[in-house]
């Protein structure tokens, strides 16, 4: 809770009262979590609004504060890392509270599962493309409750029926419109009224929305453009030292030797900290810290994983994938249907380890004192971070203060607390605050990677080419088993099978199973989606194989299998239409299509590619159609489609983390390539207007784009891509 962003300025948190925030949580917003057995309650009390004793702040629930000046603060439950939640979540609140968007300032919520749990996931974190869909109802209810109390306060002042009053742009008017009071004028009085149950406060009918569904400018754009936005890496404190770190290049390795004397001889170096698997050089500034780290001449004991290689990991997956797994879906009689099919198609697909490679490398500033620990960091999981730091330091959780920041790219990497824990371990040896910054090389080579998956598929087709049998075996690591153990049940990782266990197509006989295979010496984690980022590639590529085996057009084939699924059929039809599906293309050009249901949204993409004689692939155009239910800000959705598509496209063309002798072979952007600006295709987004509940957007294009591109490569060359990244050597023409 480090700073408040107000339109185009930053306001220090000291301008607001912590007492009001911690006590002012009077709105009960209880609901059952999807897939969870427990119920989270968005409240500490339902009895009365708690008034700030110092400033008279109106705080009807954990999300809103309005002070006597009329300033409206949204205590925002999700972290801004470029996806636009400062704006979209503020729009939800503003719509029902009846204030202008530009009058809302946002402040990061502190760690508090009870108040700020992400209902899609079950804990307080930013992930799963869940920001809007998790808080679509709670934030609107919060605004509606606040509005009703402010109207009630005005009505009481005028001695009229609240039903005769209305609110608009932060002002309450009487029935004649001649009397009016601002929210600031009413804050103190409203704070003394009992809070109505959220379910008793009527929400707007969507047809009456004036803000939701419109194009709104990002409220965080200006400070990012002019450099005033503060990310975790920007934190400065009086007397702060800076540390550079070197971590064992092999997971499980330890420091063997370190030349502390040489490191301390570098001007500005203050301390060398050896914490077994890492060395930190603490200095007055980053330049001295890096020079000191180089002078330390560290040698390593590689430990038990020094022989780990990609070849060994793939061999392990190949062997394990031959065994039966935990059953995720079993409908009909697949074995009988396969045996009786007119045609059978088999395939093995593979996707590699992937790093996050966010532009802001891992960093954390820590000030550890006897009775408290203050941490300045950009984290997607503040409560998990707080708990792990408390366990490490022995401090009570409420003595661990997480000051959250804007994040310069999260993609799931900031769901992990390993960087913060490393920083706290360094801080244990430092007097005063210390900022620990990872180099780009340390960031890439000590990431927690998207798992490597190997999938085995078989399908049987009838005489007309329709699939009558479908089997899909997924082999790979389970991130869920480590991160959310209660969700890993009966050998099944629900994330690892998403978009595979229930593909959108009509398949009368289907069998899907999962085999957990944990590679030695590799840490795996969330990567802008996990299961769908590999399963959609596999399922949509295999559907394309079946269409080809049936000698049918890829869109027509899918259309036949989606008659029962109107939302999926709608995005397929729209994407194909807007892309000009079926119109002629030059030689070695092709179009490919993919469809998915993931993150609560239906998406379809068409990619248009050109493959040169040397095998190089140029993606010229991407057309995306999405039905994400009721949408908040079309402008943000289009930006997410563009960014997510490029993130997934980069991985499809270039992304691969490989291991040799226990070490990651990639180290910087020369070996772990990002897409360059001259490679970026035209990306078109088409939204389907829907009355359905909101779905997620951020990860959807990342998951769907790879299959569209590889299917287009097949259309251009006749060569099927079954593993990523695309092997351009296999696409060369030989004369």
TrEMBL record:
Pfam families: MoCoBD_1, MoCoBD_2. GO terms for molecular function: oxidoreductase activity. InterPro entries: Ald_Oxase/Xan_DH_a/b, AldOxase/xan_DH_MoCoBD1, AldOxase/xan_DH_MoCoBD2, AldOxase/xan_DH_Mopterin-bd_sf, EF_Hand_1_Ca_BS, N-heterocyclic_Hydroxylase, OxRdtase_Mopterin-bd_su_IorB, TAT_signal. Residues 226-304 form the Aldehyde oxidase/xanthine dehydrogenase a/b hammerhead domain. It comes from the Bacteria. PANTHER family: ALDEHYDE DEHYDROGENASE (PTHR47495:SF2). This is Aldehyde dehydrogenase.
